[in-house]
Amino acid sequence: MSISQYFSDIFKVARSIVIGMGITLKYFLNYKKNTITIQYPRERDLIPPRHRGIHYLETEKCVMCWKCSEICPVDCIYIEGVRGSDGVLQGGYRGQKATLYKFTVDYTVCIFCGLCEEPCPPKCIFLGPQYDYNATDRTMMEKNLRTGEVYTEEDEKFVQWARGENERLIAEKKHGKKEEGK
Amino acid sequence: MSFEFFTSALLASMTGATVEEVAREHGTIPEQGGIYLEAGIRQICDAMGVTLLVPGWLLITAMLLIVCLLVFGFINVFALFAVWLERKVSAHMQCRLGPMEVGFHGALQTIADGIKLTAKEDIIPRLADKPLFILAPIIVFAGVLMRFVPLPFGQRLVASDLDLGLFYVAAVGSVEVIGVIMAGWASNNKWSLFGTIRTATQMVSYEVPIGSAFVAVIACVGSFSLHEIVQSQSGWFTQWFCLRNPFLFVLAIIYLVASLAGCKRAPFDLPEAESELVSGFHTEYSGMRFALFFLAEYAAMYLVSAVAVVIFFGGWWSGIPYLDEIGLGARDSLAVETAGLLIKAGVLVSKSIFLVFVQMWVRWTLPRVRLDQMMHICWKVLLPISLACLVGSTLWELMAGGSGLFGLA
Q1: Taking the domains of chain A in order of start, what are their residue ranges?
Q2: Is A25 within 8 Å of B361 when comparing Cβ atoms?
Q3: How many domains, chain B?
């Protein structure tokens, strides 16, 4: 290695280091312009309009036809209630054509295929833009679409009470008809 | 703590006289012009009348402890800041944001990480050499902490201004190598051993160019004392040693490059080399022992930067005489004097932190060099050039005498 080669190598190295450090400094100073990070829980990116996320239900329209539940390929929609607006149930959500007391989707099972949207006659179930849903427990992955919250044990108790109450009402009605018939 | 003061304290404890009396007799109390941390604390003790009540040896031990704790506290606070700065610098250079959640822009992130580290399990491998394994991080950290003794944090703000200050800094630096070798050997892990061997070669090799940079400066000043070296750079910034003559300018750059290698920073981070050696000599360490290595690394970063500032970039002089003269007048009140001291301390620390930033900047710009390249840079480039510059600088001093800005000013 000749002496001129030696010094030109040193010069090249020094020059390339200066150029490289200039580039990093440029990025360091303009970081606000260059960064594309989104501070997730506080800032959110725009969601495409046809995004298939967590369901939401326009409860008052629901006619309790079970079509969504039937078409669901993984059977994750559970519905209970009374058809007809005179179904009569205190505490249940009374819609135009039905009184719902349970409408849940189990997100440990749901595959977000969007098939439940299609057969719905009044078009009241949708897959919405919300995409983050988490829980500390597997039982908490069931969402109560009637309230928009997690399906809790209290809801379960209410459903059981309502189920019993409903049967009692039906029995009473039958009994009453028999009485009338006599 | 200076040796003379220690001996006078010993004499005091033997004869029953106060430290004051003995020290005054032997003429070892520092003059008012050079107040050091030890002397400052002693003055506070005097004012409170503590010196009369407490035996000399106890006072000495207590002051040693206080000075040590002050320096240790500074290192800790600096490490908290520098770790955050490093993460931010690296993030912004890579178009990321870095820590953002804990505190303002993640300012408290390091404290959170420190708490996490203390809570971690402290593992010692089964086949490790246990005593050496436990001792190694302590020796590494002690090696760095010892180098802070003659290092000024501002005018008059120095633990003890040793006469052989610069020599001491260079000599005690080798203690760290011993600690690192112990850590790598005791871990009983081949990656750690590779890392150790690399550390030893690297740190010992790069002490040579660092040494010749030191010698060139010492030849200009005629003193090893860091305090003296800074005092002789007063005036305009053209008086700084990096601008004193062209050879010293080259030596300043050589010192910066070699000090990067000396504290195992990228592009000379071969001892840690994540992609090949996991993390080198501290692969097997966890919890607080690992934190101690980490602290030692950041303390060493500050130390080499502060030494660079002291010997090449004017120490506590801001380079503008009007600013430097605050608090130096004979009739200045205590408040003005204190303000002057604080300004000077601020100047020195901010210069050092800027050099630390440059170290980070280099780290996140350049790729790691290969082992043979590392040796090539040291022995075939830095060493011959630094020796030539040493000769050139001394000859320049003989010919042109001491003058600033390459002899033009």
Answers
A1: 3-34, 55-181
A2: yes
A3: 2
The residues near B49 (Cβ < 8 Å, ≥ 6 apart) are none
Give the three-state DSSP class for B234. coil
pLDDT tens figures, B193-242? 888 888 888 888 888 899 899 998 888 888 888 888 888 887 777 788 88
Q: Which residues neighbour B174 within 8 Å (Cβ) at sequence distance 6 or greater?
A: B143, B203, B204, B207
* Residue B40: inside a domain: yes
Looking up tokens 């004017």, which residue turns up? Answer: B314
- Quick check: pTM over 0.90? no
Last-in-domain residue among B20, B39, B66: B66
Tell me: do B184 and B312 sit in the same domain: yes
On chain A, the residues whose CB falls within 8 A of the CB of B366 are: 17, 20
**Which candidate from A21, A31, A35 shows the least CB-CB separation from B365?**
A21
A36 touching chain B per CB within 8 A: yes
B313 and B212 in a common domain: yes
- The verdict on a CB contact (< 8 Å) between B381 and A34 is no
Domain that holds residue B8: 3-66
Q: Which amino acid is at A8?
A: S
Question: CA of B71: how far to CAs of B66, B68, B76, B246, B353, in Å?
Answer: 9, 5, 9, 35, 16
| Residue at A104: amino acid letter | T
What number of other Cβ atoms are within 10 A of residue B50's Cβ? 14
User: Could you tell me which CATH number the domain at A55-181 has?
Assistant: 3.30.70.3270
